[in-house]
Amino acid sequence: MSFSDESFAKGKLTVVENYVYLCNGPSSKVYHRSENCKGLNRCSTQISKVLLTFAQNKGRRACKIEF
Ligand SMILES: [Zn+2]
């Protein structure tokens, strides 16, 4: 993280950016930045919005399409 305290104080940044989307399917191994990602469109099960750190702790990798 390279954000300054000043940026936070002015409300330019929010913690919303730390959330990602997961497909709950058994073959899904990545997390997505956007809810509208092409990779998520193929998901046949529920989609979860979780913290980035939670997704990483579960062994998920970043989506190749977005990152
Ligand atoms: Zn994606």
- The average pLDDT score comes to 85
- How many beta-strand segments? 4
The gross shape turns out to be elongated
What is the succession of H and E elements?
A: HEEHEHE
Report on the biggest sheet.
4 strands, mixed
Q: Ligands in the structure? A: zinc ion
Oligomer: single chain
Q: Distance between the terminal alpha carbons, to the nearest Å?
A: 17 Å
Helix content: 10-25%
Number of helical elements:
3
For the largest sheet, list the strands in their spatial order. Answer: 3-1-2-4
Which spans have pLDDT < 50 for at least 5 consecutive residues?
none
Number of domains: 1
Rg measurement, Å: 14 Å
Percentage of residues in DSSP E strands: 15-25%
What is the SS-derived class?
alpha+beta
Explain the overall architecture.
This protein is α+β, with helices and mostly antiparallel strands. The protein has one domain. Helix content is 22%, strand content 22%. It has three helices and four strands. It has a four-stranded mixed beta sheet with strand order 3-1-2-4. Strand 1 (19-23) and strand 2 form a beta hairpin. The longest helix is centred in the last third of the chain and has 6 residues, at 52-57. The protein binds zinc ion. The site of zinc ion has 7 residues, from helix 2. Zinc ion (ZN) binds at residues 32, 37, 39-40, 63, 65-66.
